[in-house]
Glycerol-3-phosphate dehydrogenase [NAD(P)+] (Halovulum dunhuangense), 323 residues
Amino acid sequence: MRPVAVLGAGAFGTALAIVWARAGLDVRLVARPETAPLLQAARENQRALPAIRFPYTLQTLSSPENLPSDSILVLAVPAQATGAYLAQHAATLPPGAPLVLAAKGIDLDSGALLTDVAARHWPDSEIAVLSGPGFAAELAAGLPTALTLAARDTGLAGTLQTALSTPELRLYRSTDRIGVQLGGALKNVIAIACGICIGAGLGDSARAALMTRGYAEMLRLGLALGGDARSFQGLSGLGDLALTATSGKSRNFAAGLAIGAGHQPERGRTIEGLATARAVVSMARKLGLELPVAEATVAVLDGRLGIDAAMEGLLTRPLKEET
Ligand SMILES: NC(=O)c1ccc[n+]([C@@H]2O[C@H](COP(=O)([O-])OP(=O)(O)OC[C@H]3O[C@@H](n4cnc5c(N)ncnc54)[C@H](O)[C@@H]3O)[C@@H](O)[C@H]2O)c1
Ligand SMILES: O=P(O)(O)OC[C@H](O)CO
């Protein structure tokens, strides 16, 4: 049994660490230096997952130094912090350890996929992606969840799938890192759009239209960047879109709801789609792709367009074949 080190003790990192420790894995949860003592004292993450006790075997650490050399590393900080985390800590991580990225997003500064951001700092090891529909609170509560684990090498994908699957967390494997990570990143943008639609009172039918046309945009961009259409049909694409664009438990959907109702999104929450939407639009422009739902979402977020005008713009585009 290989030890697992979860780097980042927010909601998702903590939930994964709890699930894996409960299943009997040897797990270290690496938090910020100021947070680790609080987690250790309370034996729960009171901020992110209140009232969910840590299994007694779960170790909490304040630094990723001195992790076991055969560790599987799982990075669970927000997408925009991926590069900074690795820039700061890569030198202290066990050389050669596989790194699984759990964040969902596209780097706003560089427009790069997170696997490419990570590879700059972690060039000599395999980088895998964990994505799919799963709320941290549900995972931590022991509810059943299925996600996708993608690595370029099918052998490694299988090794990680076996190592990290538990009775409650079923992992499917894939070799399509591009499609799997893009599904997770792009669904957040469409979830914000769907939230805005519901928040503004435009109705469930309009939301279904946005989800479907948004899915077509996910596929369009994903295929242009080298993803496999089957990934978008799977858990990390359609699966996560279905969850995130319909559930008030999603921070992206909830942010959209607030904006649609004329309020600010709740401050201090990790709302990945806000940065990813902007990254996606600039990426699509460079590639010459039309992504009208994503474009309209960014225009609303930037205050360049009102919600009614954005919807009218989408509805009055030239009539076309459904593709
Ligand atoms: N919460 C979920 O249900 C869920 C599910 C699946 C995937 N994800 C993805 O996981 C990622 C993290 O989300 P989350 O819900 O855990 O967010 P969160 O806001 O709960 O936690 C983020 C954590 O990262 C830490 N962090 C940020 N920058 C850091 C740095 N430079 N060094 C050390 N720690 C740093 C923060 O202190 C915080 O503990 C996101 O990309 C999200 O899309 C979340
Ligand atoms: O709360 P959200 O919107 O970040 O969604 C969490 C997960 O990505 C759902 O799979």
